[in-house]
């Protein structure tokens, strides 16, 4: 089954439908699962060398098959995983991608099936290097671990809010879900200075099979950083558009954070202080984070000081947790409106479309319909989601909008099984989904929480023990093992789910 790579959920009747196969054959058949009758026969495309997987592959296009049903694609005697052609083959996916954020809740009694647990991490946190205690309860656990880190939280929040804004049919529960995180982020701000603490966690990661409420070690609040403060300012300003009743509070939090940034132009980048060993989320530069904050604050307030800052800066790009410039571009292009500077607007559009071309070029030549080239590293599935998101965000500014939509959909097909390892990278969805994510509640209960996007292939196989053991020497896009110990390939995070939720919501599936 691994030889035929296909979206394991399936395709809508009018969508382009393509599988990628490693078998050497001229023809393929699509057979109905019910009686094995042949619904479609076609010719396999030419042999292509796929550098990231090191394999020779061929594409089987069965877009012409529009009849609803459950099928398997055959090349000779080899079948694919079953899939559907239906108006809604992705039923439940979008809800699960969003529902996942509920499972990640910290500090409250959680009622969620076998993963239910009493409130966790409710003790006061100690400000690092002091005796000072602070209440920073709430928010989402970042990932497979129970740390809560401001910088990646900001990315997750931004993706969800943008999804809400741009989805043809937004999800009613989204704003409440996001508010849970924003409330926690507000607690992470130091009232006196406006600076934002980088993260709260225990000193060490706990055991992989420990449920949240059983992690009782001391909570440490790590020092204020400019990256946390800037991304905080950005999302608070952004959120003020969505929460009219909380607008003043959110904008004043954002302004105080900005004041801290202005007073600390050369703040050092974060490194774990002595004795703390949890996620770092350090950075090489905070310029893109400051740029994003200025763009959001300008969009929200029209304040000229923010505009001056943006005009004097270069234009930054990125939708990752450490490169966030594209969020700033989007804020400016979508929301600065009549206050925007025309030449700067033109340069921002051009920058955004340049990024899109850099995504579309590898995509067009890729037999799996993804755009990673050979950039398969820790969290590669986030990059897949971010690329799709970038294209979807750029649609109002290009004549290639339809191609961008198709490319985004192809990125979803990749995540759901049309990839070199034939896994669905979303737990609980597809015939061959990841079953053993590096996620403590899933390990503790012996069953994966559904709707989680795993990290994906990572060519730097020495970065975790399971990948090192199982994939050393593999080509980049095949460096994936569905093993609980593979944290660099099989962990899950709030900011890997969020761009994929964005894709689902904006593609309206
Ligand atoms: O950006 C550089 C690039 O310039 C360089 O050439 C390349 C060579 O390795 O590395 C790139 O840096 C990568 C970095 O992420 C930025 O993308 C590193 O390789 C890669 O190891 C690093 O991975 C991060 C990982 O933490 C280790 O720091 C992941 O992005 C990040 O998602 C992950 O986050 C962890 C948290 O610390 C703890 N909680 C779970 C979470 C997910 O695993
Ligand atoms: O579980 C941790 C995961 O969330 C992190 O992404 C990863 C890398 O920082 O570290 C994991 O924790 C492991 C630790 O680094 C080394 N000892 C084993 C831990 C997993 O049980
Ligand atoms: Zn918790």
Description:
The chain is α+β, with helices and mostly antiparallel strands and 509 residues long. It has helices at residues 93-103, 150-166, 174-187, 226-239, 247-263, 287-301, 304-312, 325-336, 342-364, 380-394, 401-415, 440-445, 465-471, 487-490, 494-506, and strands spanning 4-5, 10-11, 18-21, 27-32, 38-43, 48-50, 55-61, 69-75, 78-79, 83-85, 125-127, 133-134, 148-149, 196-197, 199-201, 219-221, 224-225. The strands form 4 sheets. Strands 2, 4, 5, 8, 9 and 10 form a 6-stranded mixed sheet that branches. α4 (226-239) runs parallel beside α6 (287-301) and α10 (380-394) packs parallel to α15. It is globular, with a radius of gyration of 23 Å. The two termini are 26 Å apart. The model has no long low-confidence stretch (mean pLDDT 98). Bound molecules: ligand G3I, ligand 9MR and zinc ion (ZN). Ligand G3I binds next to loops.
Radius of gyration: 23 Å
How many β-strands, per DSSP?
17
How much helicity do the residues have?
25-40%
What is the end-to-end distance? 26 Å
Q: What is the makeup of the main sheet? A: 6 strands, mixed
Give the tags.
15 helices, 6-stranded mixed beta sheet, binds ligand G3I, binds ligand 9MR, single chain, alpha+beta, binds zinc ion
What's this entry about, in short?
Helix content is 38%, strand content 12%. The chain is α+β, with helices and mostly antiparallel strands and 509 residues long.
Secondary structure layout plus pairing:
Layout: E1 4-5, E2 10-11, E3 18-21, E4 27-32, E5 38-43, E6 48-50, E7 55-61, E8 69-75, E9 78-79, E10 83-85, H1 93-103, E11 125-127, E12 133-134, E13 148-149, H2 150-166, H3 174-187, E14 196-197, E15 199-201, E16 219-221, E17 224-225, H4 226-239, H5 247-263, H6 287-301, H7 304-312, H8 325-336, H9 342-364, H10 380-394, H11 401-415, H12 440-445, H13 465-471, H14 487-490, H15 494-506
Parallel strand pairs: 2-10, 11-16
Antiparallel strand pairs: 1-3, 3-7, 4-5, 4-8, 6-7, 8-9, 8-10, 11-12, 13-15, 14-17, 15-16
Helix pairs in contact: 1-15, 2-3, 2-4, 2-15, 4-5, 4-6, 5-6, 6-7, 6-8, 8-9, 9-10, 10-11, 10-15
Bound molecules: ligand G3I, ligand 9MR and zinc ion.
Ligand G3I binds at residues 142-143, 145, 147, 279-280, 322, 377-379, 460, 463, 487, 491, 493.
């Amino acid at each position: 089954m691994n030889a035929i790579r296909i979206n394991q959920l399936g395709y809508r009747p009018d969508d382009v439908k393509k599988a990628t196969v490693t078998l050497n054959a001229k023809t393929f058949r699509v057979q109905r699962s019910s009686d094995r009758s042949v619904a479609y026969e076609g010719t396999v495309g030419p042999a292509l060398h796929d550098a990231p997987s090191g394999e020779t592959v061929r594409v089987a296009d069965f877009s012409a098959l529009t009849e609803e049903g459950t099928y398997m694609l055959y090349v000779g005697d080899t079948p694919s995983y079953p899939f559907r052609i239906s108006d809604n083959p992705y039923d439940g996916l979008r809800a699960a991608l969003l529902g996942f954020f509920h499972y990640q809740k910290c500090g409250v009694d959680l009622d969620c099936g076998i993963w239910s647990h009493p409130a966790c991490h409710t003790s006061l946190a100690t400000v690092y290097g002091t005796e000072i205690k602070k209440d920073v309860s709430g928010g989402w656990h970042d990932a497979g671990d129970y740390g809560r880190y401001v910088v990646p939280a900001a990315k997750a929040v931004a993706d969800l809010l943008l999804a809400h804004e741009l989805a043809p049919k937004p999800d009613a529960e989204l704003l409440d879900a996001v508010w849970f995180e924003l409330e926690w982020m507000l607690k992470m701000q130091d009232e006196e200075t406006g600076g934002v603490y980088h993260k709260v966690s225990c000193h060490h990661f706990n055991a992989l099979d420990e449920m949240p409420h059983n992690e009782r070690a001391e909570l440490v609040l790590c020092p204020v950083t400019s990256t946390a403060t800037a991304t905080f300012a950005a999302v608070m300003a952004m959120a003020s558009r969505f929460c009219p009743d909380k607008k003043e509070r959110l904008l004043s939090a954002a302004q105080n954070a900005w004041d801290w940034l202005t007073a600390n132009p050369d703040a050092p980048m974060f490194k774990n202080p002595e004795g703390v060993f949890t996620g770092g989320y350090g950075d090489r530069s905070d310029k893109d984070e400051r740029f994003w904050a200025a763009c959001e604050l300008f969009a929200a307030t029209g304040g000229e000081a923010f505009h001056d800052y943006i005009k004097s800066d270069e234009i930054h790009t990125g939708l990752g947790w450490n490169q966030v410039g594209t969020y700033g571009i989007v804020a400016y292009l979508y929301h600065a409106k009549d206050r925007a500077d025309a030449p700067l607007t033109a340069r921002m559009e051009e920058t955004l479309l340049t990024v899109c071309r850099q995504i579309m070029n590898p995509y067009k030549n890729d037999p799996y319909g993804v755009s990673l080239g050979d950039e398969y590293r820790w969290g590669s599935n986030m990059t897949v989601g971010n690329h799709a998101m970038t294209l979807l965000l750029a649609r109002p500014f290009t004549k290639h909008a339809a191609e961008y939509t198709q490319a985004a959909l192809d990125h979803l097909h990749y995540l759901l099984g049309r990839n070199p390892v034939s896994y669905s990278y979303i737990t609980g969805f597809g015939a061959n989904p990841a079953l053993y994510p590096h996620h403590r509640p899933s390990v503790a209960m012996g069953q994966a929480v559904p709707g989680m996007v795993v990290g994906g292939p990572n060519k730097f196989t020495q970065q975790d023990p399971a990948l090192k053991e199982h994939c050393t020497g593999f080509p980049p896009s095949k460096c994936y093992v569905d093993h609980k110990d593979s944290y660099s390939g099989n962990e899950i995070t709030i900011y890997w789910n969020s761009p994929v939720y964005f894709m689902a919501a904006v593609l309206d599936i």
